[in-house]
Structures are given as structure tokens and as C-alpha cells.
């Protein structure tokens, strides 16, 4: 039997921390932005768990998903009117033209296993996401983002430091 060093986390522990943190931050963000009228943007669909969570818990605001290719569970797949297909380097600037700075909530779970690659992607999309967020809107991300005007908020109860980040516009 292999012993794990004291304080070390298994990949399962890290995954659980990420999921618990993601739910705590999303629930906080949904409640905090409930009075804002703007759309919600989900960057990346994956199998659709967080999209389904948003659709289940948000009322009165449309949820748009940005994705390269759909591979989600059928119950967690947006209709064509709420699906924006393509590379985010093109679809996020086009969304700014279409929606302006109106997003009440943006969620991104970069979710890759390579932290350096995730960080590089966060640096790439931060300036594309920032102009979309309405005044008072929130960004929830699995990775640290790099914004000029958005400020990082303390994590809500239940979130694990370093596993999710929340920013206010």
C-alpha cells in the first residue's frame, strides 16, 4: 500500500474540492445577480452539468453557451438559439457586438489538467470576457483570471480557496 504524504491531495480530493467550490460559487453568483436583467454566459459546455445547474436555478435570464463542439448529455444541451458555436477568440468579440456589456453572470470552467495551459487560456480570454460583464455582474471561474477593472471577491462559504474564483464587474 502506497502512503500519501501528509497534506497531499489525491486527484479525487482535488476534483471534489473543485465541484464543491464550483457549486458554492455558482449558487452565490446566481443569488447575487438575480436582480440584474442581462444574460448568463457559460463558456464551455462539456457534458453540461453546470449549464443544467444554471438552467435549473436561474429564472428570468437566458443562458447562452459558448462551445466549439457539442458533446453534452441530451438533458443538458441548450437549444440552437442559446448555443454559440465556434472558437471563443471569435465568438466572444461577436457576443460583445450582439449583447454589449450586459452579461449578469459569466461562468468558465477551464477544467484542463495542465495548470500552465489553463493559465495561458485564462490570460487569452480575460480581455475578451471583461467587456461583456455588466456593471455589478459576476465572473465565476475555475482558474484565476486577469482583469483590469473587475475585482476579485472573497469566496462564499463552502468554497475551497484556489479551486474557484469570483470577480465583480
Descriptive keywords:
4 helices, single chain, 20% strand, seven-stranded mixed β-sheet, 169 residues, alpha/beta
Compact overview of the structure:
The chain has 169 residues and is of the alpha/beta class. It is 34% helix and 20% strand.
Fraction of residues in helix: 25-40%
Output the radius of gyration.
Answer: 16 Å
Distance between the termini: 49 Å
- Record field, number of beta strands: 7
Q: Report the mean per-residue pLDDT as an integer.
A: 93
The secondary-structure element order is HEHEEHEHEEE
Contiguous helical run count: 4
Q: What is the strand content?
A: 15-25%
Low-pLDDT stretches? none
How do the strands line up in the largest sheet?
A: 3-2-1-4-5-7-6
> Sheet with the most strands?
7 strands, mixed
Write the layout of secondary structure elements.
Blueprint: H1 11-32, E1 40-43, H2 49-57, E2 63-67, E3 83-85, H3 88-99, E4 103-108, H4 115-129, E5 133-141, E6 151-152, E7 165-168
Parallel strand pairs: 1-2, 1-4, 2-3, 4-5
Antiparallel strand pairs: 5-7, 6-7
Helix pairs in contact: 3-4
Structure description:
This protein has 169 residues and is α/β, with parallel strands linked by helices. The chain contains 4 helices and 7 strands. The protein has helices at 11-32, 49-57, 88-99, 115-129, and strands at 40-43, 63-67, 83-85, 103-108, 133-141, 151-152, 165-168. A 7-stranded mixed beta sheet has the order 3-2-1-4-5-7-6, sandwiched between helices. Helix 3 runs parallel beside helix 4. The protein is globular, with a radius of gyration of 16 Å. The model has no long low-confidence stretch (mean pLDDT 93).
